[in-house]
Design goal:
Blueprint (H helix, E strand, L loop, with lengths): L1 E5 L3 H10 L4 E3 L2 H6 L5 H14 L4 E4 L5 H12 L5 E6 L2 H13 L3 E6 L2 H9 L4 E4 L1 H6 L4 H15 L4 E4 L5 H9 L4 E4 L1 H6 L4 H23 L1
Parallel strand pairs: 1-2, 1-8, 2-3, 3-4, 4-5, 5-6, 6-7, 7-8
The structure holds SN-glycerol-3-phosphate.
Length: 223
């Protein structure tokens, strides 16, 4: 399973990249705003800065909601860097644009997906990635991971090439569960990725190995 980081923070992207397990980045307008990135020029420059850190897909979201606007914006974003993936909302005009981009060979990520039917439409329109928001479903007492499983089954039934990108991940168990049900990608906050490293038995075990090594080394020096 690929790991993407879901942030617009260059510091966090660098930190995740240094871990050696990062495959790509997703952003959205809220994440850009959180970093204080505003204004067309600043936003475009920020995407290029991200592409210069990570050698993998970088999702850049359109703001337009009409077909012509989505296409205009998406083509501009795609021209910034070969790794840019145009993030398009799951609305009628968005699905039309997904088909347009697919015919032109422009990579896309269909965002704000909350049902299997929406994921089916995105795949039929040729989306490169589909982003079901599992955390936001869990927030309203609906099983987000179950949706990933459902989409996996549907895509496998018909051989759709659209990658299932589990989004809105909140904690490490979401990552594990998504891996179990066959998500192609998990886009995560840095905290969820880092939490995967930790196990108390690893910490205790390493302390013991190092202590034993130091003891043996001390004996060797005395002898
Ligand atoms: O980037 C889309 C998605 O991952 C948002 O997550 O935490 O705002 O529900 P969240």
């Amino acid at each position: 399973m690929k790991f993407f980081i879901d942030t617009a923070s260059l510091a966090q992207i660098k930190e995740a990249q240094d871990l050696g397990v990062l495959d790509g980045v997703t952003t959205n307008p809220s994440l850009m705003a959180k970093e204080g990135i505003s204004g067309a020029e600043a936003v475009l420059k920020h995407y290029v800065d991200i592409c210069n850190i990570v050698d993998g897909p970088v999702s850049a979201e359109v703001i337009s909601t009409d077909f012509e606007g989505i296409v205009r914006e998406g083509e501009h974003l795609a021209g910034l860097h070969p790794n840019i993936v145009v993030k398009v909302p799951m609305i009628r005009e968005g699905v039309k644009a997904l088909k347009y981009f697919s015919n032109k060979g422009i990579k896309t990520n269909c965002t704000l997906v909350f049902s299997a039917g929406q994921a089916l439409l995105a795949a039929k329109a040729g989306a490169s990635f589909v982003s079901p928001f599992i955390g936001r479903l869990d927030d309203v007492s609906t099983d987000g991971v179950q949706l990933i499983e459902q989409i996996r089954t549907i895509y496998d039934n018909y051989g759709y090439g659209t990658e299932v990108l589990a989004a809105s991940i909140r904690h490490p168990m979401h990552i594990i569960q998504c891996a179990e049900v066959g998500a192609d990608v998990a886009t995560c906050p840095l905290s969820a990725i880092v939490a995967l490293f930790d196990h108390p038995l690893t910490t205790i075990g390493l302390q013991k190995f190092l202590a034993d090594h130091a003891k043996a080394a001390g004996r060797a020096v005395k002898a």
